[in-house]
Structures are given as C-alpha cells and as structure tokens.
Amino acid sequence: MFRPLVPANIRMHQYSHEKLEDIPEGVFESIRAGFAAQRSETPLVSVNIIAWNEESNILRNLSSLSVIRSTHAVEYIYVDNNSKDKTSEIIRKCGITPVFEIKQGYGFARQAAMENSHGTYILTGDSDTIYPPTWVDSMLKPILAGKSIACSGTYSFIPGKGQSRLRYAFYEFFRDIIHFLRTINRPYLAVGGVNFCFPREVALKIGFIKNNSRSEDGSMALALLKTGKIQRVTQLKAAAWTITRSVENSGSFINAIKLRVIKEFKRVSIYFYKHG
Length: 276
Hints:
single chain, alpha/beta, Spore Coat Polysaccharide Biosynthesis Protein SpsA, Chain A, 3-stranded mixed sheet, 11 helices, 10 strands
C-alpha cells in the first residue's frame, strides 16, 4: 500500500520533548488516564514493548497506546532492557510499571515481556514507534477468525525535520513488494518485532533466542510456522509508524536503498522455494 502522508491519528502523538524534565505534567496525566480506562485483570492480548535508552522517543509510543480502542481486553507490558537514561521513569509516570531485564539483547527483552504477560495472545511492538488506535483489533482479526496462527504487520517511516515523506513512501512501496514475495514461501522473512501477533502459550514453549541479534522475531516466526500459517496484514489501520533511525544508520537515504537492492538481489532466488 502506498502511503504518501502520515495520518492525523499518528501525527497527534509526535511530541518534540527530548528529556523527561521537558514533558508537562498534563501530558502524563492524559496518558495515565488513557491506560487506566483500558486496564483489565483478564486480558485477551498483551502488548509487549521493549526499550533501551529511549527517553527521547518513548513518550510518543506511550501516548499512542494510551488511546488504543479495542473491543478486546488489553494489557501493556513494557520491558526496560538495562537503559542508562530515564526511559523507566517516563514509563512509570505514564502509569505503567516496567519490567527490568538486565541481560542486554532483543531476545532477552522479548522473552522477559512474554513471560510477564497474561494475555492469550502477544502483540509485539517497539518503543520508538507510534501505533494507530485500530492496531490491536486489526492485528488480532485474522487470528481470531481462524485464518492463521500468527500475523505480521507492516510499518512506515515518520520523516524527520527536512525529510520528504514521499521518498519514504516509494521506498516502502518497493520494500512491501519484496515482503509480498517473501510471504509466498518464506513468511518468516517478512516478520518484524515492530508489528507481530501470535499465541502466548505456543510461543512460550518455543522461546525467543537468547542473544542480541535482531533475528529474534524471524526465529520465532520460523518456529511458529510448524504449527500454522502466518498472515501478512498490510492495511493502514494496522500499520506501525516508526522513526527513520534504521535507514539513517546506513549513512544516507540513497545508501540505504543501494544496500537494500544489493542484499535482495543476492538472495532473491530463495523466495521461490520453501525453507527446508
């Protein structure tokens, strides 16, 4: 799906505060009230968010989840993966007690979140990401309808100051074509922890890999494939919106595209036959 604009229900959470001290108390009060209204002792779904040194980003994530509108009972589990900044303090001021995982790594953090969850289903996300109010129900729908055992969702980039949203829209358009090709025979290659839903009990038996590799989500998806289908959800109402850090880490937008093209060209043939 081509997304040339950032939706209004995403833009409303784009706070510019970089530090805890800069955030007005009224913002915290509003977010706390939103989470309090959603609180349930018997959640159907546990939203798992992991964070590491996200003081400058996590407020936007908390704000977006505080206004989630779901027909199902939801709980929110935040894991602070040994942050050295005030990530945990912001989470607490928003009305949620974070889980602290001292072992550094995506797999350790995801596992800690899952083990502290109570829902029948887990929905994973990232702390530098904003989610639409329809996110939870949109990701759960195919699973509850019996169409798949798990769902992976797409994501888009929120352009930084001076950046063009349109160029990211084109980048995502071609990336989504690649993800479509992957889902035919290797759906685990299109899964990202930024937007991934699956049954907790099944996943607990599998467990996330215990290291700091970013493959913790794909490894879980590969194991889940042995028990059922993983469906790709591409609708705007299920799309996550994240910062451009992963692209900027490549040095420049052009360099990110070049590296992506080279990487996909080298392995495009594997998309046409099944794993194993």
